[in-house]
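Bumping with the actual sequence this time:
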Amino acid sequence: MDNHRFLWIAPSWIVAFSAKRIAWHILLFLSAIAPRAAYGQVSYSIAEEMAKGSFVGNIAQDLGLDLKRLKSGKARIYTTDSTEYIELNRERGVLVIKERIDRESLCGQTTPCALHFQIILENPMELYRVTVEIVDVNDNAPTFKNNEKRFEISESAVIGSKFVLEKAMDLDIGTNGLQSYTLNPTDNFVLKLHNQADGSKKVEMLLQKPLDREKEENMALLLTAMDGGDPLMSGTVQISITVLDINDNAPVFSKSVYKSIIAENSPKGTLVTSVSASDADKGGNGEVSYLISNTLDGVSELFHIKENGDVILEGKIDYEAAKFYQIDIEAVDNGGLSDSSRLIVDVTDVNDNSPVINVVSKSTSINEDSATNTIVAMISVDDPDSDTNGQVHCGINDNIPFTIKSTSNGFYSIVTDSALDRETDSEYNITLMCSDEGVPSLSSNITLKLQITDVNDNAPLFQKSSYEASIVENNSPGLSVFAVRAVDADWKQNARVSYILDESVINGVAISSYVSVNAESGVIHAVRSFDYEQIKDFQFRVRAQDGGSPPLSSNVSVKIIIQDQNDNVPQILYPVQTSSSAVAEIVPRSADIGYLVTKVVAVDVDSGQNAWLSYKLQKATDRALFEVGAQNGEIRTIRQVTDKDAVKQKLTVVVEDNGQPSRSATVNVNVALADSFPEMLSEFTEFTHDKEYNDNLTFYLVLALAVVSFLFIVSIIAILSVKCYRWRRERMFYKSNGQLPVIPYYPPLYADVGGTGTLQHVYNYEHYRTTDSRKSDMKYVRPCNQSILSLDNTDIQTLPHAHSEKLIDDSGDQVRSLYYFSPFRVTKM
């Protein structure tokens, strides 16, 4: 530190002093500017009354700290006192004066006078003790309690008579404190000082020349008190003396020093002790009165002395404020003679102060994955009581993952001692309890609230291990099917769940073409309309993913079942209905009751009860002749055929499913009642054809039209090919002596139809065709017996446009023949 700083700290010191005094100031200066650092503690010395912003010390340099560390650690000053005289400049790393420091107000007569505080840094937490000693400057002059002191002195006062004068009080200490007294004039009196054990001086005025009331009845003296400061400061009191007649004996105390002990917080009126002084004079000159002569230390407000010498407690005393009191007592007789004594009152401590808990630093939150021994708070605890009453023990509440550790005298740290889990406990109320060892013990407590910050350590969990839902077919696209739900035990963003559809393929189609999932709600929507007849059910997986970093996720399997709806009408497989032909079943008039006329075969592509079919006869030429099996669709006779029954019988059969609502289809069955084939033919052409159209057969009609067109083209090509072939053959015939070639005839063969088809038996087919331009309609005729089937080729050729198909039952019991009309004419080969 350079001399410039020295001049700035204490400019009043550089005055011409003696060599010894200059050397003392230099030593004081060196002690003020040389900081001492040991075990994290730094000391400075500064003069009182320095201006705000004055430099105290470079704390960063003296503690070996980087300015960046001061800023990042949010360095600050912590003091248990509410008044902060020193502040920290983090930008410069220095300590400066924050408030004007008056050593006398701060410490009184206590020496040395020092400020004690701590420098606190965070992240990590560090604590450094700082002591700033306040050096006294001469800013207070000696003062007297009263401006005037009056004495009544008998003229008979002997040489050497003592008169106790009022002591001056100087708030400064050391050299700046009270140093000397002077008395003027000194014609009759001289000043005498007596050093006392506490370092103060007892001031007495001694009579050195007899008084003569007749020469001078009233006298005025000036007592001056001076300190040793620079510049020198002083205070005065006027002494007025009235000379009385003879009173030649002064009071005398029984002891020069009295001692007493009293407990703090004693009630007002408590007797401290009793003092006594005696006066050898008689009468009024021997009557003694007592008074307390303390001036500026407040003792006269705390204690009162009665006329009999009893010292009574008048105010409240506190051990923590003062551990003892020195009371100056005077005994004065009526002649003005007096004596003085001192009463020393020791104050004993009572456990009347609870421990004072101060939070130096604390964390309001901590991550749940924080390591053990992480500091969450630093606490300072102080008990103003002494000895055992001031010994403090601290602890925290049980069953929490924290413990308390003592770091230094009066300082504690609260640290974690086990793993934290926010999902178990999201916050803790840490109650710190401190109690002293007094009897009875006093205690204090504070509660710190600590939030546990969430870490993404929990994956979302679905409420079910798998989900299954159903949807009715023919749904509208976008329909909400159901919702999956996952819960994440974490908090806020870490618990925000998003739902994602895992990509997969069903029947070669991406699952996203079937369903979608709402990322926020988990609601699953159908993307398309489903058809039960195409897909019965399908499975996919949904992933729930949280919003943590990195995110955690879990999967769940979802099965969607398509429910059937009655959306298909029954399809008639047999008998086949076309717009260009009519079907006729031949029933012989000799048929027995229960004769099987035909069987209506139908299917329904729906499932369950939607595909359960029932058959009933809707219309009939003669309802009393036929019936339909409700379950199997078989049309049978229910009575014998009579001659009165019409040859032409038309039946309408309704096929109905069991859906809600039900759907149905109808089929017309034409029946010819005839015993012979010619009889049947006579009525055959007179059948009327009902043209009933079914919207569901439109597709088949279009397909049939396309097939017929294709066959027509193939037929044309075939005819042309045959004509070319015959033309070539005829030419070959003429070239080979005119002989006709022999062309073998092979009847067409048809594959057997399994018993599981629409017919109950397996039939073989033989086809015959005749042509007649007059008839172009096709009819189906059933012969009444086997003999009708024995038609030779000539009989067949006589039928106009007839094409015969012979159906032979595999059991040989029943034979049927069908006849078709065709534009082609077949000749016998």
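The tokens above came from a reply further down the thread. Residues 140 and 172 are 6 Å apart (CA to CA).
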